[in-house]
Structure formats: structure tokens, C-alpha cells
Amino acid sequence: MDQLRVKKFGVRLRRLLFSSKSREFSVFLFFLAVSAGFWLLQTLDETFEMEIAVPLRLADVPDEVVITTPLPDKLHVTVRDKGTILMRYWHKSLDSISLSFADYDNGMINGRVRVPQADVLKSIQGLLAASTRVQAIHPDTIEFFYNHGMNAVFPVAMVGEVETNAHYYLLDVTISPSEVKVFAPASTLDTLTSVRTMPVSLTDLKETTTLEVPLRLIRGAKMEPERVTLTATVDVYMENTIEVPIVSLNFPGDKQLRTFPSSVKVTYTVGYSRSKEVTRQNFVSVVTYEELLDLQGQGATKIPVRLKSIPEGVKIVRIEPQELDYLVEEVREEE
Questions:
Q1: Which of 121, 151, 120, 146 is nearest to 134 (CA)?
Q2: What is the pTM of this model?
Q3: Per-position b or e across 65-95, b if 16+ CB within 10 A of its CB
């Protein structure tokens, strides 16, 4: 059954291919292809412009020399020629051109070299067909900076913001390495106090985050390393409540302060990793005799509660009660 179907299909296909309409369509396609070929040849014989990339490298650099700002990796060159020639550049990448460091070394400890465009143009032209003309080279200023080892070490300063989610706590922000070596002329090193990172933006953090951050480029300088690792350590907040006694200070020997109640409840939040470090001794609520006299002068009948000492990393949520009744007692000396 299947063989019969295949045989019928083959018969129909032969009839279709060898029919008069099929022959006419095949002839049409043939002449269309010939016309397209003639049009393409005629078009490619005209003159066009195109941009090509030419790799660039600096050769013969001595071991003791540090290139602080290198040459561009490639040049973007606009060339003009017939289409048939330009097609070669489109299909095949050009070899790189090399500039010898020795040709531009002026013997200075630090140097800036601006390569004459004529030198570059000569090297590029050697890679091209004789009929090809260079119309433009980008970048138009080709330069590099070098250094014979002059350097200094500077701390790394972060630029940007690091923020956590409202329920989390930023325990620490560290940068590794914290210092980098900078190779540059003395005139540049004398103006530096630190090396800055590129802007960092970390928001709504809920866990410890690590990322690599590039350092901000300094013209004519090279940094080792060129990237640092930034770690934002995040901790979750936890809530706790403790009793904090009221302490009186500077009261005369014959007077004694009593508050009702004698302590207050302090509810606070702190990072989980620091929770065990925080005790009631870390909180201090003090009432001085001078404050009490000032309140009495204002006609106040209660003492507002203020914390004079709060541990680092603690966020106060609430104090209960916020005001206290009080009594100043006369202290009788024992006979």
C-alpha cells in the first residue's frame, strides 16, 4: 500500500516538473539569476566607502617599562575603492599593525607619546590594495603613556550608595584589596590621596552581597589591580525588650529622687549577630538635678524619659512609659 502511494506521488511530481508551466517558470528563474548577476557585477564596479577595523599593538616594550595608558586595541578606518576590492576587506580580517616602542622612547622616566598619524597611515596603507584610499582614521589622536616604575600606594574609596531593606541591617562594607598601587608621573601621584571606584548602587539588600567593581580611570596612570571586590555584609534585625533603671545625678546629699515606676521598658531592634552583645548595662537613662529644677521652673509635673546612652547599631523603637511621675524626698542624716 505504501509503495503504491510513493509511486503515485513520483508520477505526479514528474508531470509537474516537466509540464509546460514548469519549464516556463524555470526559464524565468534562469534569466532572473543572470540579470541579478550582471546587476551585481555592474554595481560592484562602482566606487564606495566602508569602515574596516584594523588591530593595533605596541611592540618591543622593555620589561622595566609599564604602559600606564595603552594604545587603542583597534582603529576604525574609512576606506574608498571599487566594490570588488572592498568585498575582500569585508570577507577577510586585516592583519594587525605594530608600532615599535623604541621608535618613540624619549628616555624620560615618564612619558606621553602622541603617534604621528602619518606613521599610522603608512602602516595601514601597507595592508591595503594599491587602489584603496584611506579617508579617515578614528580615533584621530593616537597616544600612549609609559612609566619606568614610578609608583605609590593609595587607599581605595567607594563611590555610591549601599542600602538594605527596612528589615535588615548593614553590618559592614569592605573593599579588597583596600589599597592599590598606582603607576604614574610624579605630578599625578602628588595630587592623589585615594583611588575611587566607579559608582556603586546597591539598594534593598536582604543578604550579604559581593561584587567586582572597576576603579575609576586616571589619565596617564595604571592601577594594579584595576578592579576590587566589594562586600556588603547584611544582617537581619531582631526585636528585644529590656528594663532600664532611672539613674539620678548631681542631687544634693539631702535630697533623693524617686520615680514611678523606677525603670522603663525599652523595645529596640538590633542586628542578629550583635544581639548577644547588647544588655541593659548598655542603655543609660539619667535625670540630673539641674534638669529637674529646669522642669519645675517650667511647671512640668512629670519627667520625660530620655536615653543618654545607646549601643552602636541599635535602633530605638519605643520607650514605655515616656513620662514618669516623681517625688523628691528629703534625706535625714542619722544622729
A1: 121
A2: 0.62
A3: ebebbebeeebebebbbebebbeebeeeebe
The 10s digit of each residue's pLDDT in 159-207 is 999 999 988 888 899 999 999 999 998 888 999 999 999 999 999 999 9
Residues 35 and 53 in one domain: no
pLDDT digits (tens, 9 = 90+) for 45-73: 577 788 888 999 999 988 888 888 899 99
Domain with 194 in it: 151-236
Does 230 share its domain with 266? no
